[in-house]
Amino acid sequence: MRYPSILVTDFDGTLTSQDYYRLVRDRLVPDDTPDYWSLYRNGQLTHFEALRAYFAAARPDEPTHLALVDLMGLDPNLAQSVAALNEQGWKVVVVSNGCQWYIDRLLRQAGVDLEVHANPGALEGGRLAMHWPTDTLYPSKQTGIDKAAVIRAYLEEGRTVAFAGDGATDVAPALLVPPNRRFARADLAEGLREQNASFRPFERWSEVANALLESTGEAS
Description:
By secondary structure, the protein is of the alpha/beta class.
């Protein structure tokens, strides 16, 4: 087994400092647009439907959509961190409830080739159209991609699994891994505190990589 260990990581707000949907909402969505996020929180929309609604409500402006991808703030140490993790037997797998279009774009710019599980999409008519994933092995009616199912699949293979995330939808997957391999910030950290579940805080994704590398070095 080339990679006995797997780091499953969220993308928006975890590998990046900004969520793409928030950038779109704040810069491209008209002021009179419904608060789709509140509708999601109240159970009137799924997580997937809320994101897709914001993307559909944005004014058609392809240059700005492209510029917003660059404003997400991908960790500048990503390539170096991934290479170091790979060398120590860790594979990095991105599992996101966002859209693969901007994930692929940023990873290409960083020169990093990672396995990605996310909702498909593309710029269509100047807007980002996010679609239901039809060929994923890990479907979710709420989010499109079931992060917990990805982690369970790796655990069933007998691999060591770590998880890093920042969102409310990350609580369930985070609880599948032990506290010393559970990395959280923002809404995920808050959700874990509410459940009195321990975790390792981080601000930048490369801190997660460094912590795993240190632990691997101590174990060897």
